[in-house]
Amino acid sequence: MTDRVRIAIVGSGPAGLSAAARAAALGLSHLLIEKTDHLSDTIFKYQKGKHVMATPSQLVLRSDCDFEAGKREAILDRWNAQAADQGVNVAYNAEVKAIVGIGDPIPGSIQKIVERRRDGTTETKEIQRLAPPYRLTLSDGRDVIADAVVMAIGTQGNPNLMRVPGADLPHVQYQLDDPGEYNDEHIFVVGTGDAGIENALGLAADEAQGNAVTILNRSTEFASAKAANVKALMAAAEAGRLAIMTETTTAKVEPGFITLDSRDGEVKLKCDRIIARMGSAPPRAFVESCGIEFTSGDRLAFPKLSPVFESTAPGIFVIGALAGYPLIKHCMNQGYDVVEYINGNRDLKPADEPILAAKFAGLPEKKSVADWLEYLRANVAVLEGLSPLQMREFMLDSEVRAYRRDDVIFEKFDPGSSLFGIARGQALVEVAPGVDIPIDQGSIFGEVGLISGRRRGATVRAGADSIMVEVSRTAALKLMSSNPPAKRAITRISTERQLLQMFGAGLTPADLADILDTAEIRTVKAGEAILSEGDLGNDIYVIRVGSMIVEKKIGGKNVFLSYLPAGSYVGEMALIAGGPRTATVKATVKSEVIRLNGDAFARLMAAKPALLERARRDMAARQDVNAFIESRKDSFSTVVDMYSETAKFLVDNGIGEATDVLLIDEHLCVGCDNCEKACADSHDGLSRLDREAGRTYAHLHVPTSCRHCEHPHCMADCPPNAIHRGPDGEVFIDETCIGCGNCQRNCPYGVIRMDSVPPRKPGLLSWMFFGAGPGPGEPSKKWRAKNAEPGVEKPKKAIKCDMCSGIEGGPACVRACPTGAAIRVAPEDFLTVARLGGEAR
């Protein structure tokens, strides 16, 4: 049996249902093809009772079906009723097996279409025939001939699978229908997109169920989740209903257990069930069999589409999640718009047109929204892989501005974590007074703030009249997570600039092309070695994130040699001098390294004598350390052992990711607490330091005080972006803090407290001569309560060490110590064998 329709719509999710409803409203012959026995299988498979959001809120809904935020069940009931009332023609339990064109396109020909209205009358229309009709073969034995095909099949049927040992065990699942089915289980949710977060919240919602729920996030960001979901997740964690593990991935699954690679190393935990929600990919084989091309060969790439959703197969249109638009409101608008276009409406603009038009209104030229989107896409390299539809969504979260020559884009030390793309003109980066480095059209800048969260490292001006796209941190992370070519481009540029900054020696980007073509970024677990003593190899390793320690086996023992923070490199000794590796280098915390091909680096050194000389100097310094240890191994074996144990203790207590740490020499400390009192008196009466807390090894004590981590965990989820890094590396919290407590929960060292600023104390002299006030240091709770403003409860805010930023003389805790017991140091200055050598002498 063969049916003939004007439009065949494949998939009855929000996009397909909206398209079918528009076709029914226009009186177009259509068939909505659904492989299950119900509408909108994606929404149908949402967990029971799930609250469905209607975002983005600023976008107007354009559909013949209603949609507003609400429970899954209510939305499905409404859509079922409306589809029946509107006469939507649905074929249930019918899966499309093939779509094949059955004729040749006839350019410029006019086809007469007779449309039958609901009241039985007909209307003849003339349309330009753009494509051949298509034959759709269905699983129920029917064939359907359609003049146009709308593919709205989504991606949920093709989930990303866990690829670790044991991932095929029966307690690993990729769907959660009803959270209420599970009780008294240890459940791990893998993935922190919207689906993963909502599953975790559902499983932890009822304490009576007794589930121990943990959600795993491979990074510290929640780039692919809605802000409301992230807020709800953090609130649940604060209430103790679930646990969040960031910078954690799955290493192995066994019956009853899960082994994780965490930021502190490998950990094995009890596990009864794993819910894996790691996203999904397009069903590429089927889509390509229909003649549709993709933007690239990446598994997560999307089909090539025109601004009106038409694919590379003329007459086949792709909408919804398969087009890269997963939000329901977007999908429904696309369903409406595509049917309007097929029906001949060429004047209809997308629903987001007014929003985007307002963004482009301040630019110097008058172009249409579509023209500006294409201009930006074509001229900013990291955006080249986006389709016109993805560009629209991308620009909803980004800004575009025009700058005149010499306009300042941002100043050195300005806060900011956005990324800039140069669509026209040039940016000038001031690396020294009067010395500028140009960044030309098509490239990006600001990636340091994006990756590390540090303040701006240089002043950047426009080198010519320019147009720049400012990409928010959220939009940039989402771009990198959903678009592999963009991630590769940003990674390559950031790697190139890190190498240029590190090696100097007059290198240019062109010099590094061969190096970058073979470079590889590796994630290294805590405790994992990137180099092992005695191994062969000549590759160079640059530490991109985290830190490493260097050890050498002497007298059968592993002896600590040095500490390497992010921005260091190792491996040059084997490359220059030949022979096996002379030491072991392993990660102190979860880290990232850039592996540079040794042969390519050797060619670069041969071409750049200054680089070779730099590498030889570094090698000589390391050889001196090795020689010193070897020469003293007998006479100072006890000192060497003691130093190695001390270094291990410090690394185990977070010094591995610190940039500045407070240490107290217990031999010198007299317990006067002047350090705590000085801290409080320098910070509105609230101390950022707990001297007695923390761990001690031998005479060395690490009190509870901020380490100012290289990649601060506290910055991972700060809604008002109130946490920044200052010009001297200090991590501080500004006045925009809203007291949400996310930073306190994310800090692994317990150095952040939530408190309100106490009443103002009388001055020190008033206390000394007249007994006014509570005296030096932090006032007691009793004094605070007695002197508080009646009826006014001050809101709590996050409080942490800021290294006394802006206070003359530096950290008050160090200045106030009468015995010199308190010192603040960078780990690389303290953890060095040179200090050992000085002490030994």
Automatic annotation (TrEMBL):
Pfam families, A to Z: cNMP_binding, Fer4_11, Pyr_redox_2
Domain of life where this protein originates: Bacteria
SUPFAM superfamilies with a match to the protein in the record: 4Fe-4S ferredoxins, cAMP-binding domain-like, FAD/NAD(P)-binding domain
Cyclic nucleotide-binding domain segment(s): 382-497, 503-622
Domain 4Fe-4S ferredoxin-type stretches: 660-692, 729-757, 795-828
Metal-binding as UniProt keyword: yes
Keyword Iron: yes
Entry's transmembrane regions: none
Record's keyword terms, sorted: 4Fe-4S, Electron transport, Iron, Iron-sulfur, Metal-binding, Transport
InterPro entries per record: 4Fe4S_Fe-S-bd, 4Fe4S_Fe_S_CS, cNMP-bd_CS, cNMP-bd_dom, cNMP-bd_dom_sf, FAD/NAD-bd_sf, FAD/NAD-binding_dom, RmlC-like_jellyroll
PANTHER family per UniProt: DIMETHYLSULFOXIDE REDUCTASE CHAIN B (PTHR42859:SF10), OXIDOREDUCTASE (PTHR42859)
Protein name according to UniProt: Oxidoreductase
Source organism of the structure: Sphingobium fuliginis (strain ATCC 27551)
